[in-house]
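Q: Give me a protein?
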Amino acid sequence: MAYVISSISMKGGVGKTTSVLCLGTGLADRGKRVLLVDLDAQGSLSIAMGCDYPEQKSITMAEILQEQKDTQRNRKVSEGILSVSESLDYLPANRKMALVEQELVLTKGGEHLLGHFLDALSVCGKSYDYILLDCPPSLGMITVNALIASNGVLIPTQAEYLAAKGMEQLLQMVIQVQHKWNPKLSILGILPTMVNPYTNDGKKVLNLLEDTYGESIGILPKIPYSVRAKEISSQRKNIYQLDKGGKVAKAYLQLVSEILALTEMVETGGREG
């Protein structure tokens, strides 16, 4: 069975999608079979993966989630998955996801549809070691679906006060999902992104995160600020291709190693969120 990780944030522009791309690519480079799932109506992950026009795709996560309500559907479960390499696949999303989210609110059992799809995917023989879910920057029904379907949660946050301010509300939602639907959900850690250690605000936020959540949740490797990381979407290349020996690539490689260690630990009964 795949280990499913949700990347969640209440604020856009915190490096959430970049982190999913870099983590997924890094895991694939380590020999893991990886599926990246775009759940954001903006389709940023899809574009970064090379899908220039997500709106033109006939099968996206919007169609897939809508079809989970129809038990008479004939389409193959794995249809719509796009391959990047032998070890890396992805499922695109587009702005229709915003409408699907509204429908899910009105659908009985709508919070479980993503989980049903991922279960069906494994049953049909589409085998992955890791499935990474790039959630929209909100705590709506799509994010709830992702958390219910996940084994672990990754929480990227920019090392700025406003980005970190909503952390408590986000964690409350994770705890609510744990108690109500998914007791095995584990918080893998908080991932500080776009870190500039030379600014006073950056230092204060990092110290605050460490003091508040360092022991209870854990702080993952700090991802430094870099212009090269911002070029990932436009260049259609991952950070290891753009700047292999750079500080951001090294930080994400460290993240890959820690996630591998953490997921193995959780699966064998270690730390849980």
The chain has 13 helices and seven strands. The chain has one domain: 3-267. The CA atoms of residues 226 and 248 lie 7 Å apart. The longest strand covers residues 186-193.
